[in-house]
Amino acid sequence: MANGKTGAAATIKTGGYESVFFSASDGLRLHAADYGRHNPATRARLPVVCLPGLTRNTRDFDDLARIVSTDAKAPRRVVSFDYRGRGQSGWDKDPSRYTIIVEAEDVLSGMAALGLEHAVFIGTSRGGLIMHVLAATRPGVMAAGVLNDIGPVIEGAGLAQIKAYLSRMPKPKSWADAAQILSEAHSRSFPALTETDWGDFARAVYVEKDGHLVADYDPNLLHGLKGIDLGTPLPTLWPQFEGLGRMPLMALRGEHSTLLSPDTLEEMKNRVPSLQTVTVAGHGHAPILHLSGIPEILKRFFASVDKQRRR
Fold first, then answer.
1. Which residue from 68, 117, 122, 213 has the fewest beta carbons nearer than 10 Å?
2. For 143, how many CA atoms within 13 A lie in the half-sphere containing its CB?
């Protein structure tokens, strides 16, 4: 790291949450969305930290964060992070630094800037891989975890689909076109989604810049995918997963996921018998967390974690 210091957070209030900007240890400006921070009712409960997928951003968690942070009985503070090169975070001039290790360090910098000592983590896809890294390096920051359609074994076929889709992602001409593009690409894996859901999905994926809709990430992120040899088995993370198993843990799997296989989910349960598993009908990779009753599943899990901590 360039200077070994984490910059103080700067906050901008927006509708329903605060946009918080902080510095990574190498000085890059990063962004987080913070919900319920100043609500006294959230302070009695563990906060929730949300980590998105490879090319995704804080908007993936916006609806879930609003549901959880404003819950009438048990509101919680929710913080979601834009990794470097995504959303409102700065783009790294060195694409080789778009790695899970660096992003895990950035999450820790963000937690320090926001005064978060430990939290319940939700990791979607790449976010779950970052949780595996934290299990090996800073397990104390995680009081419990939810792995959203990710585990210690990544199926090569699923990664190949992601790689192919991202490499030929069309440029939409309008928001309606963006929703149509996403529906045509993913509707077989996500039959549960409605027309409205696809429109919401589009606004999480794309952003308007200079009058055009573009995917909300640095295209250099894809350089790392190009270097992966899908003809050989991908490395597994079983030791790190077993480290996650020392805390309350849940795994969600999309019914039609090609990245997390039923066999891997079964082996995860065999290795960590306390693991709670949920298969989300009508979803692929990765389940959209504010749909299909998932918020209620998550809130029950959070409550069970609180109960265990009070014992």
1. 117
2. 20
